[in-house]
Amino acid sequence: MNDTIAAIATPLGKGAISIVKISGNNALNILKQLTQKQDFTPRYAYVCDIFSNNILLDKALVIYFKAPYSFTGEDVCEIQCHGSPLLTQNILQACLNLGARLAQAGEFSKKAFLNHKMDLSEIEASVQLILCEDESVLNALARQLKGELKIFIEEARNNLLKLLASSEVLIDYSEEDIPSDFLNEVSQNLEKQIASFKDLLDFSNMQKQKIRGML
What we know:
By secondary structure, this protein is an alpha+beta fold. It has helices at residues 27-35, 85-97, 107-114, 120-131, 135-146, 148-172, 180-214, and strands at residues 5-8, 15-23, 45-52, 55-65, 76-83, 101-102. It has a six-stranded mixed beta sheet with strand order 3-4-5-2-1-6.
């Protein structure tokens, strides 16, 4: 987790721009060497020349995200260069020559998860968003990426803990007169929670069918 990784973040092919992303403790130092510029204010965009061994490669837009306020929670640098596959590969190779390691598939998201920037449901949503071609699925995945599923799970957990505490009261004081309103409230809350789980499961199964149809 302490090493610095780099990868091309956009699909390979000719286009207006390509993005090379660097993440790790050495990311800013690599950016400084690539641009021959020493001062970068976090979250500001700079137009810089990009060099490799003092050879000019491109003029690009670069942004520095200081840890922990980045996608991975580490120092992250983005180089938005012209969208030539050869040029993009050359810039990536320059990053590797300066000490970065080629990122494995999904490694940026892995770092985000390990640094508590995203949970598994949000990572899953981000992957499915990339593949999505259905409008209704797209909206559901956007809500999941925002954290709505995580909020639902946290609320359900808290509610179940309350129901567990209420059940323990019923067991511990079973020989005493317990108000019927209390029993009804516990039963109704449990039924509501079960219904919410069923609704979520039905919705999830429906979305999975749509996603499978796109693959």
